[in-house]
Amino acid sequence: THKPKVVILGTGWASIAALNKLDRDKYESITVISPRNSFLFTPLLPCTAVGTLSHTSVAIPIRDITSYKRYLPPTIEYAYAYASEIDPLTKQIKCNHSGQFSNHSSEFTIGYDKLIMSVGCKTNTWNTPGVEEHCHYLKESGDAILMRQQIIENLELASLPNMTDADKNRLLSFYIVGGGPTGVELAAELSDLLHEDIANQQHSFFRGVKADMSNVSVTLVQSAPKLLPGFPHQIQDFCQSHLNKESKVDVMLNTRVTGVSDTTMELYDKHTKTTRNVPYGLVVWTAGVQPTDIAHSLLKEINSVTTLNDTTIQTDSHCRVLGAPDIFAVGDCADIVLLPEYMKYVTDLFQNKLTLQQAIDPPPPPLPPVLSRSSPTQRLVKRILADLEKLVVENNIQLDFETVEKIVEERCSRQKHLPPTAQVAQQQGHYVADLLNNSVIDMYHNDESTSFQYLNRGQLVYVGAHVASMALPGTNDIDVTWAGTATNFVWHAAYFGMLESTTGRYELAVDWIKSYVFGR
Ligand SMILES: Cc1cc2nc3c(=O)[nH]c(=O)nc-3n(C[C@H](O)[C@H](O)[C@H](O)COP(=O)(O)OP(=O)(O)OC[C@H]3O[C@@H](n4cnc5c(N)ncnc54)[C@H](O)[C@@H]3O)c2cc1C
């Protein structure tokens, strides 16, 4: 029988999960294409930016992964390149080399029977002037290395004898923009570095630096009213107060960055509706993501041959790209369209009410598994029901099917259904590999029992001063939360266990002990 050729785009969470699970005997070839020749353990990237960990501890070379079972056929091929165009009709991918240093340019085309697209996403600056030119990002190891170099440089410059107080204040004002988990963890790590290691020169890597700590500030700027959107409110509140009180991070909520120049940043306060300029020494932008160029290119291809007009890659509940069923899009680059599932649940509920001649009051039936396993989907159902109730109660509107469907459609189009996390990406990677391996599953079968179901295993966030917080999904949609130094131990243990590399774990353990004993 014909064995399919599988191509995987990317070496991130979803790609590596799929790669590790694909049964090599079942494919003619498996080819991985990515401009990054290592897997990056992103949750620990903030630690590398401040020197708690070295960047090699959090990266596993792709060659180690592809040659892991080298005695098994077929060999997994890796190409150090990026995909620039995908043609879903001819099933061809155009690739370009990704060498930074050589002038050599090469382009090649590769065919596939099944494509796993897991190219992640890129930073979104929301067209804020000056961000691209003056801000650091935190997506890759290179970003963390650059950031660390600038932190060290600022500290060294601030300790020069001719520096005025104003110069020192500016150089040592560190801003993190974006109050999601990446921003929070980076602010916490940076503050630890400054207030533990730099302040305590006995244990500091920067022993010679005579920086005056009164000039040092770490500020976390968040445009929303709360940090950590999507987390349980107990964690949001704990995190905000812990960062402020214990970790010495200034948290600015309801504040938007509207422009960045080479030395100052413009902040807009949503409450007072005022704008002010603040001097800065370093700004790290972690406020949002957007589709990559290859995702845009694929969408253009799909939209040109179908009636779809999508702006992000949408898949069905089996992770197959709408309009290109031989492409599986997983991880941050795609979103599952669950509109039919929401529509069925809500219209059934509505039908029930009509039949029973009742208002919205009776408790809704349990959610189908595909909607109940992730907090965004649960929240969305709640919002849809709340919208409908508002129409009935406040506006006294008699609901009909058309109105119900319109509200479901509107709400669904405004929200990503799965959180953009490593957990989701990894589970989707495993799921797609299983789907491809398991020839008994009819790929075009839309049975819910074979659809992707996200299992929320909880969320961990490091909040500084040796404290972490954790939320685990509990019963009745109520999360169980913990925070403290014991949770910090869980945080370390969880990531140590998740890093699937013996060398990586060894380096991780050594780095943690080294930082703890000798400082960063
Ligand atoms: C600093 C940081 C901290 C984070 N912390 C957490 C956390 O604590 N918990 C959590 O759950 N999530 C966390 N995340 C989010 C998590 O990393 C992402 O959700 C996850 O990486 C998504 O996996 P992915 O496989 O979709 O994409 P990625 O892991 O981003 O991988 C994308 C891959 O595609 C490659 N690629 C890009 N363009 C192309 C192309 N044109 N052709 C071929 N290959 C291409 C890239 O080089 C990369 O190898 C964090 C993210 C960051 C940046």
From TrEMBL:
The keyword Nucleus does not apply. It catalyses: a ubiquinone + NADH + H(+) = a ubiquinol + NAD(+); a quinone + NADH + H(+) = a quinol + NAD(+). Residues 457-520 form the External alternative NADH-ubiquinone oxidoreductase-like C-terminal domain. Transmembrane segments: none annotated. One of its GO terms (cellular component) is mitochondrion. Signal peptide: none annotated. The keyword rRNA processing does not apply. It is an enzyme of class 1 (oxidoreductase). Its EC number is 1.6.5.9. Residues 5-339 form the FAD/NAD(P)-binding domain. GO terms for molecular function: NADH dehydrogenase (quinone) (non-electrogenic) activity. It holds the Pfam family Pyr_redox_2. Keywords: FAD, Flavoprotein, NAD, Oxidoreductase, Transit peptide. Belongs to the NADH dehydrogenase family. PANTHER family: EXTERNAL NADH-UBIQUINONE OXIDOREDUCTASE 1, MITOCHONDRIAL-RELATED, NADH DEHYDROGENASE. This is NADH:ubiquinone reductase (non-electrogenic). It comes from Fragilariopsis cylindrus CCMP1102.
